Amino acid sequence: MTTIYSLLESPLGPLLLTSDGSALTGVFMGDHKHGPEIGEGWVRDENAAPFVKAKHQLTAYFNGTLTAFDLPLSADGTEFQRRVWHALCEIGYAETLSYGELARRIGSPNASRAVGLANGRNPISIIVPCHRVIGANGKLTGYGGGIDRKAALLDFEQAVRANGPHPLQTKQ
Fold first, then answer.
1. pLDDT tens digits for 38-54?
2. What is the enclosing helix (H) or strand (E) of 147?
3. Is domain 4-62 in CATH 3.30.160.70, yes or no?
4. Catalytic site residues?
5. What one-character-per-residue DSSP string does 99-112 give?
């Protein structure tokens, strides 16, 4: 299957968006751990339907005016990974959850490490909010886009919730 891609400039740096033509299959930051490289045979199409809507919603999110995404998504992963990613979408804006609590929510209370691994393989960052999962001690732990970006996203969401809409500004 051909991968369609687009790029979006964001406050976190350029984002690589991927699609199968009907749904968004990936949102990756620069230097994204487990992120793909643009490959031979990939087709760049800035105006593909999934990208137009995704770019509009991501821009609104980064401006602090969107707190919930409504996009067609199709993440490729194991059944367990997809369960974890679905549960991530249930974590509210500006809220955080521990890996252990996420494991309990998906019915696998002893699988916090497996949940962490699945979380780290989430291909649709920001929209599927893996940045909202933190360590049991409240500390920030691994993030495919880097801990600094995870902290920036969490701080941004909490500030929007407390003070109303404003754009995300980073030192990136």
1. 888 899 999 998 999 99
2. helix 147-163
3. yes
4. 130
5. HHHHHHHTT-TT-H
